[in-house]
Fold HTH lacI-type domain-containing protein.
Amino acid sequence: MQEVAEHAGVSIATVSFVVNGTKRVSPQTQAKVEAAMRELGYARNHAASALARGRTDILALLSPALERNLSGTGMEFITRAAERALQRGYKLVLWPFDNQASSVQSLIASRLVAGAVLMEVELHDARVPALRESGLPFSLIGRTLDPTGMAWVDVDFDASIVGTMKDLLGLGHRRIAYVDFVLGDDPEASVFAGAVRARNAYIDTMRSVGGSPVLLRCPETPWDGRHLVSRLLADHPDVTALVVMNEHAAPGIVLGLAAAGVRVPEDMSIISVGTTSMMAAFTDPVLTHTVSPARELSRLGVDAVIDRINDPELPLPQILLPCMRASGESVAPPRS
Amino acid sequence: MQEVAEHAGVSIATVSFVVNGTKRVSPQTQAKVEAAMRELGYARNHAASALARGRTDILALLSPALERNLSGTGMEFITRAAERALQRGYKLVLWPFDNQASSVQSLIASRLVAGAVLMEVELHDARVPALRESGLPFSLIGRTLDPTGMAWVDVDFDASIVGTMKDLLGLGHRRIAYVDFVLGDDPEASVFAGAVRARNAYIDTMRSVGGSPVLLRCPETPWDGRHLVSRLLADHPDVTALVVMNEHAAPGIVLGLAAAGVRVPEDMSIISVGTTSMMAAFTDPVLTHTVSPARELSRLGVDAVIDRINDPELPLPQILLPCMRASGESVAPPRS
């Protein structure tokens, strides 16, 4: 910086203002400093300015989902978050590590980022205490069991599942089964908070109408969806509708039903929840579905952390958005 | 560092060895230094050590694909690259910006990363000259028109398409159409080098057997795949086989053919190239397909840049891997 200052005939402080944008200088001075920087091959140095200013223009998106086969919806979240960060003048880097505290601590210690956005939040998410302790601004796309005192935006799975169930009940369906997913090999490993809340909303709704819940869990692949069908038809022959929160298995379920001579929607109604319209269009009939508000939640989640960076005193956004109903051809009244 | 050295009763150099891992110290000394760091709340500072050592343990994956709806295969590349970086002790951050030189220059100027891996490489990729000029170690997953003097690993699309064509020609197919994709709204905008090489391999093979190429381009969605079918049947009624390099349109093409009463594979054979087995299983019949060697190429691409970081004098890997043939049910001899 001293070289640049001497070369441009200005003070080191002035060079610092220009480099770090910490204070306005006249266009002439700006031009002189920039010319000197070019001539001396002085590259604006993030590491240096991060130390100088104690902040960077980088956000981390913590998404352990990368460890498994990311769904169309998960991809939508990441894409939109990256877009929004750019719009706000930040760079979004993906931190594709597990939900353990250690992976967050390495991020915090690195001092590389000005803030973090967490995805795939668990009910008891080990990343959250580590972040709260660090003081690093962060927001959740999702919710822990008790998100008090944090900035979070989440899909309103409760309302979305209740709405989906009301649609099916309104058509006369009474035996409605619910299909969600398994993370990894352990059927009990799935603690993704949204999945737990959605499942509970289904169970509560079934009980509220005097029905008994039929819970089916399926790995997130189309061939597992095909295999699920024989189990469904053998164990629950009276089921007339499926609520599927498993967008990779859903097309397989449709194919498995067709192979078994079960017509959709005449013999079996299917609603795919929290998916994308592209995933819903991979089958014939096109799946009646609800679309996860990925674009809005990513925007709100990124805004939440950037707003905290700019003003830690701002009120904490705590926002629920429902899935949006989308048309399809896979729902009809139950066969009488 | 001086504080830590005094507190631990060791030299500043010793603290530096521990912090930057630049030299082994005895377990006792290590423990003393780490205790002092804890007591003083000294966080290992990436920005500082980056300046001190002139390097970081971060790699950037430059993947403009995030700007569009990323395919299952693209996701596989990113997932595997992140895994491999972790195995080699590096963190992989996603740099989801366009293929313009400016987005690379901001990365270079930031000095945040030790190296870069480029994906979605174009024939004349503006990122490459910027990186070569900078001296930042990088590798390509893909290839420019002339990749001489660079570290690259790529799908051998030429061999893969030629092999796929040989299979269809061997079964007796002569009228074989080729479906690839359109990036953005401009049909001519797709300059993804792999797409160009694959298309040319198809054209050359058709000409080599005295056939005339039938090129169809389709946006990467299942509904565009459905719409493509009517165009195909109207303009090219004698086509008996499709080579599809468009994994999101392929399921739509199968559905469109079924809706038009065209049986797969009895009336029309389909091979989906450069996809994943999950995408191929979304349809009935399951698509005969070739699987992109995403796992191997990501591993090799990440290794290539890390090896350059550790030893700039190492020979440049230049590796081609073919797609792997995978079984399916969508190919048969042409209807006689």
Q: What stands out?
A: The first helix of chain B runs from residue 2 to 8.
